[in-house]
Amino acid sequence: MRQPTMARRRLLFVPSAVALAVALAHGAAWAQATITMASTTSTEQSGLFGHLLPEFKKASGIDIKVVALGTGQALDMARRGDADVLFVHDQVAEEKFVAEGWGVRRYPVMYNDFILVGPKADPVGTQGKDIVEALKKLAAGNAAFISRGDKSGTHAAELRYWKLAGAEAAKGSGYKECGCGMGPALNIAASSGAYVLADRGTWLNFKNRAEMVVLVEGDTRLFNQYGVMVVNPAKHPQVKQQDAQKFVDWVVSPGGQASIAGYKIGGEQLFFPNAGK
């Protein structure tokens, strides 16, 4: 058989080289289409992101790597420049984050509520609608209470309620901080017969309930607002601002808001979209 000439070899090589270059370019573009989101354990452990993020990828082609932390830790992560976008739930801390120049702008995106969960027997009689009165009873009765103790949005809310109850520094001998996420805190409470403040979304997705029930709900002070923010590239030039903003724009758009509303467990809606309100 006649061997290809040098010219022929060059012609054979060129298409392969072009194909390789194209493949590499596509690979590089795909690698860039990934952003890091610092978020709360409640959005992750409620199962929301397992529902929401595939919808965003379908719409944008962008992957999101989620790092689930307490809100305070998520904000610190963003201050270090280790995240591109934030999805958290402590409005006071979020507004301070933006005012200090760490975030470009805060967008309200959805809400649910906090609930007080505890043993069905409710030994100190907390059941009702008033979270402040319930905490007063917990403190007076030295009831077992598991606090997140992790500077999360839930922890920040809990501390506000203790302050309103006048028991900020005297929560009772049963008060314990776990320094953990919402799921682990619920597990500890369930295994020890303790009370715990939880977000409703994580509770609805929580399987290890034992004898735990919702005891306090419906107090307007238990309102739980979530916000999204792009980390300011003026502070950290490596932030993928354009792709991060695409997520923010999508999640507050009618499509993103409908996706949030569509996430249900047992027919019960976990989060309620309220972008622009």
TrEMBL record:
The PBP domain covers 34-254
Q: Superkingdom of this entry's organism?
A: Bacteria
Which keywords label this protein?
Signal
Segment forming the signal sequence? 1-31
Q: Which Pfam families match?
A: PBP_like_2
**Which SUPFAM superfamilies does the entry link to?**
Periplasmic binding protein-like II
Keyword check for Signal: yes
Does this UniProt record's set of keywords contain Signal?
yes
Q: What is this protein called?
A: Tungstate transport system substrate-binding protein
**What is the source species?**
Acidovorax soli
